[in-house]
Q: What sequence folds into this?
């Protein structure tokens, strides 16, 4: 056990001498993936500290980015960290990614997704009752896009499927958790919830 600890400390000393720091490792890991990396996973890869230590190092990185006027920062999205550009640069980034327009969600898809997000776990019949149209094909399309998943079966006759959103849904809409969904209109509780196009 002590040998392992000594080797970790030696490795850390060597890394520091070469300019590699825990912060630079976190930064490199986040730049190497499109998926959010959970704090515990980052701590495990670093081999030192825990989730709280990772959060402190992320704060330090964000302070550095702000000081030098970087166009990005690290955010906690879908229970993991990602490097994201600042909203100020959205218009230029949209121009770059115009070719992705074919994957944009239609108004009907956004409406269906919003009903699932706000009412999950939800039956297809309940989504149809809110929307007033059949949604079977739309739910299948949202499942293909990895925004909706089957989360179980209802305890009623026929055991119909229950639907909910995925972690990818949180990621696409820039939400840390479902608690970050926009609040529903309390004056009109029967209104169909809406989501903004990501």
A:
């Amino acid at each position: 056990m002590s040998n392992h600890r000594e080797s970790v400390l030696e490795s850390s000393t060597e890394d520091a001498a070469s300019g590699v720091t825990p912060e630079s490792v976190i930064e490199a890991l986040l730049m190497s993936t499109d998926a959010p990396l959970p704090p515990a996973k980052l701590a495990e890869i670093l081999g030192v500290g825990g989730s709280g230590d990772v959060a402190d190092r992320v704060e330090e990185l964000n302070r550095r980015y702000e000081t030098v006027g970087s166009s990005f920062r690290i955010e906690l999205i879908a229970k993991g960290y990602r490097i994201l550009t600042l909203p100020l640069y959205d218009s230029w980034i949209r121009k770059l990614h115009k070719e992705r327009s074919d994957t944009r969600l239609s108004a009907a898809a956004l409406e269906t997704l919003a009903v699932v997000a706000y009412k999950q776990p939800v039956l297809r019949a309940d989504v149809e009752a809110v929307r007033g149209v059949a949604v079977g094909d739309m739910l299948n399309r949202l499942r293909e896009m990895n925004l909706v998943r089957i989360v179980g079966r209802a305890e009623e006759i026929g055991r119909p499927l229950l639907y909910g959103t995925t972690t990818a849904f949180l990621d696409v809409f820039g939400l840390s958790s479902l608690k970050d969904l926009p609040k529903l209109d309390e004056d009109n509780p029967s209104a169909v919830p809406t989501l903004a196009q990501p």
User: Anything to note?
Assistant: The domain at 104-180 is CATH 1.10.10.10 (Arc Repressor Mutant, subunit A). Residues 1-14 have pLDDT under 50 and may be disordered.
